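User: Predict Urate oxidase N-terminal domain-containing protein's structure from this.
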Amino acid sequence: MQFVPIVWEWAEFALRWLHVITAIAWIGSSFYFIALDLGLRPSADRDHGVGGEEWQVHGGGFYFIQKYMVAPARMPEDLIWFKWESYSTWLTGFALMAVVYYMGAELYLVDPNVLEMPAWVAILVSMGSLAFGWIAYDLICKSKFGEDNTRLMLLLYAILVVMAWGYTQVFTGRAAFLHLGAFTATVMSANVFFIIIPNQKIVVKDLRAGRTPDPKYGKIAKQRSTHNNYLTLPVLFMMLSNHYPLAFASDYNWIIAALVFLMGVTIRHFFNTMHARKGMLWWTWGLTVALFLAVMWLSTFGIYGQRDGGEEAALGPEAQRFAAAAGFEEVHDIVVTNCSMCHAKEPLWEGMASPPKGVMLETTQEVAVHARDIWLQAGVTHAMPPAGSYMMLDDETRALIRDWYAAGIEG
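Assistant:
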């Protein structure tokens, strides 16, 4: 039975690795084409529909790139589509969320001190919110309101702020940030799947039929692509945040998320303006630094404040098994003695502002809830305590942890 969690852990690692690989491919191609589109110079071949061109050098070779405002006069023999980078990123991300947050809902998704609900309800809320995000966004973009890009972006930002607040009222802080990233990434990938690629296929179909393509399809696709460009950096922040409790564990975490989306705009605005050869807007970096300092300031207030349920919060069925398993009291003493210096509401380790990954191991409840992590980090492997600390566990102590976990699994 203990072999199953090990396989699951490696499956999670493999999915995370694959997700990062596909995300690099998607973000890389997305940023490249935005930079290319903004940097194209007027073409001498404008009469043939060429809207811009650029010479580039890379890897010892020279490249000459041209962009047609609508489409070339004839269909090219070989046409490369940039779509699977986006699809693969979303699919691997959703699979990773299912493995970590759905299968581990009791630990990572549901917080009884925020909102008490069964795991299956939390999972439905999670999936429903992702679907709602795309439907609402798409309808707004297609409405009269969406014809004004500035007005549209302001409304979309307001929706993201509301969703940031809403997620923190339903899930754990860590899951709230992760879901805000998934909410945004779903919109981005759906833009590619439902709008950008279908519009390009319409243009290709018209070319093959000898018709002149309608330029509106390119205009719509460009609008959605621009939205994706400005949303990318906040999504990366949300995905990385689960390793940093100072971001997600503050009582003001939803405001932190709102400021992060603004930082994404200021950073991309600098690079987009630079690529368009309109100068270096250095003030955007000053504003970004100011926003980041505000995030740091907010993170120091109310960490785990009102949501520290302590011993009073009810244990889920799985945690109850480990709390009742043989050897729990002994393991609890081992963990509190060796781990709570760091894994505490107020860590005693010098230079540590918050417990690593937001994991606290001060109470019997917390030890029972984090049984799998304790078993994996300190029982099966020697990851914890860290090699640089003076709190080291011998093989006999680690064996006690493994025996307790086995008893909990079998119980």
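The first strand starts at residue 50 and ends at 58.
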